[in-house]
Amino acid sequence: MAKVTVYDMQKNPLSERELNDSVFDTQVKGYLIHDVVRSQLAARRQGTAATKSRSMVAGGGRKPYKQKGTGNARQGTIRAPHYVGGGVAFGPSPRQYGFKLNKKVRRAALCSALSARFQGKEMLVLSEMKLDTVSTKSFAQIMRGLELENALIVIDGANPEIELSARNLHNVKVLRAEGINVYDVMKYRNLVVTEGAVEILEGALAQ
Asked: What angle do CA 48, 54, 58 make, to 5 degrees?
């Protein structure tokens, strides 16, 4: 099994921990990561673009002029698409852009993303992460001490002091272990995980 050094918040080594290879040291499959990221970003799209078809535009209930005898082409309504103020032909309508991926695909993609960070030496495991009070300044000092500027931090449960302290920092995001996802793991250059979060992830993802 792969091993990783566990540090405290001052980046002093405390111990070594074994990692489940099926979660943190598996084969990195880029095509799965790509599919899941596409799925996540597609699901975020609002899909609210809409136009009015000729049946939705007010007016145009009668023929603008008689069928024959005028010398003009016959017309049934002034709300047809070729008229100014008419309906739009083949315009967009509200829709969902998201698409389904199987649970096994999503799981394998997340394991691939975590493995990519571990194998690239971009993953740091901390024994714990805590603050006594909400303080962005204190949290920024911790990040400087860990020599991290761009990081996703995964914690093992509700931690208001950490979550609120980090939310105003640029290029730092805090997630609870149950909310970890492929897009955020790949978006941030470094991954910081608490020991408790490692246990949760291994319990949820290990085969």
From this structure: 95
Query: CATH 3.40.1370.10 region(s) of the chain?
Result: 2-44+100-205
Q: What's the CA gap between 192 and 146, in Å, rounded?
A: 10
Interatomic CA distance for residues 52 and 114, integer angstroms: 46
Angle ∠(21,149,109) on CA atoms, nearest 5:
30
Helix (H) / strand (E) element for 153: namely strand 151-155
Cα separation, 125 vs 5, in Å, equals: 7
Q: What is the DSSP letter of 146?
A: T
What single-letter DSSP state applies at residue 178?
G
Q: Reading across the β-sheet that carries 13-19, which strands appear in turn?
A: 13-19, 2-7, 123-126, 190-194, 151-155, 172-176
The pLDDT tens digits for 8-60 are 999 999 999 999 999 999 999 999 999 999 999 999 999 999 999 999 999 98
pTM of the model: 0.84
* Of 181, 204, 189, 188, nearest in space to 41 by CA: 181
Q: Is domain 2-44+100-205 annotated with CATH 3.40.1370.10?
A: yes
pLDDT per position as a tens digit, 84-105 = 999 999 999 999 999 999 999 9
Q: What percent of the chain has pLDDT over 70?
A: 100
